[in-house]
Amino acid sequence: FLKVLSCIDSILQSPRAPPLIFRPSKGPVQNYMKENGQGCGFEHLPLTIEMWADQLIALKDLHRSLRKLSLELLPWNTKDPQDNRESIRVEDLQLIVDAILEELEHKEKNSQTQSLQTLSAIVSHFQKLFDVNSLSGVYPRMNEVYTKLGEMTNAMRNLHELLELDSSAPPTVVVDTVGKLCDIINKNVTEQVQQLLGTQDIHSIINKLEEHECFFPPFQALIQDLLCLLEISNVDDILPAVQNLK
Fold it and tell me: Where are the annotated TPR repeats, by residue (predicted)?
């Protein structure tokens, strides 16, 4: 038995052994072992072996957790040669971790590649939409589009307020409202012209305009001659100047 303990103790003291967490107790148990001739420096071995046993159990639990994580990240990799083994080695856990890390790195590289492809497609689409021939012209055209969009947004906001429309009204409603307003204004202008010329007939309006065109040029020439002759510059001064000549 002492030979077995000596072998275990040599294993524990080898450079490859993990550091001892448990230390020999200095209480009644050690005194009792010394009194019975068992104090040979092996009293810490049961605690150390118990600790190692707990670690081996924890190693199995860790392996089980890593397997669950591997199935979540690598669902196609269902084969595990260690499932039927009683003992689990650290190397087995390292293989699972390495496989997970390799898959994550692969996904990250693919994601970066897809991102570059997506960005390239977006830039190409922008060039087609806004007629940009080179990459150097993308940024200036973006600024131009942004400026125009801001101007249009401000114009639409002002039109909504002037026309007393709801801010959520689409542009088609704004255009229709402006069109109706223009029709009303044109109708009022036509009525005012008809009232001014004293006629409701479009042909009469045309005749009066033709009469005005025939009469106004000679009348304008006469007025200009009077202004020059009387040496005045204002039409309102013509009548007083003629009266002064009497």
Answer: 136-169
